[in-house]
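Many introductory courses stop at the sequence. We go one step further.
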Amino acid sequence: MYTPTNSHDNFDSRRRVRLGDASDLMAAVPAMLGFHPHRSIVLIAVKDGGASVGPTMRHDLVLAGEHIDRRAGSGTRATPEMLDVIGYLAGYCASENIPAVIAVFVDDRLDRAVRGTHLLDVEAVVGELVTTLASFGIELCAALAAAEIADSAVWWSVSGPQRHGRISDPSTSPLTVARVLDGYSVRRSRRELAETIAPGPEGTVRAVAAEIARLGPGGRSRTDELTAVLSYVARAPYDTELDPVDIARIAVAIRAVQVRDALLALTLGDDAGFVEEFWAMISRLLPRRERAIAATLLAFSAYVRGDGPMARIAIDAALEADEKYSLARLLDRSLRAGAGPELVREVAESGFACARACGVRLPGDPFGRR
């Protein structure tokens, strides 16, 4: 990342996509990201000799268009912003030993039939991408473009042999179906994704804050606090209407670091998708201090499963609520550095030990006692 408004998003796909079929690959992009990209460059790592995709990276597509003053002074139409992005993405691919990538450009200003200024800009970006990737020994297998990712929308190649076709229905993409079955949604846009954790009704937040103040620091044992939160999490798929008292009890419990750290282990279970939805719901209804904690738990869960877009949005929400919250800052540094999900999974595994210290055995803990 270069500024807070840009994002470098990372998704480790556990599913396989037939890379030989560009129409299917384009249709799978929203599922890889968790939302439909808009005015974006998406870089998809090619793994296993072309049999599957690896990390998927997205960044805002900044084009010069007719504004000459926004072009780089080096004679290329690629903007300085995009030159920085290309350098960073290429460096990330090199650090992850990614041998080849496919670039996808999604921008409503592009039209295959009209070679306008924005299409010329994209072609310039592709040229810079080829050169920079090659300097790291990385191949650009293909560069594809579309005005949008939608059923029957036209896609075309921006470099190499001229190809074009129509995008398959994204809603029926195997990756989309797999994502939904895993308990996750594909949003219409990144903004819609962000709205899933936007602060909720002010009246509810104030009511929860009043209940938190009434409960005080809490006199219950860590065992009782963790057990209570787990019971609320278990109810979440069936009972989403928690009252302010319930939400306040959760808020007071997760303020205890030992309880919070024990809850990190839930990201490794079969119900991780439901747990993530739970933290998204709770974070919307909490006052700032506690919102930072719940949003960080959400970010941690998204990070563990490789969902960089959701992790980025949740981290930003946590830091907006409390810019000094240490776990959110740690996740922020890790995501900016391009650290893979396996690094955070190790932290999640330590949650089992924290739960045992609270006197609770979590599902999946191989060392706990019944």
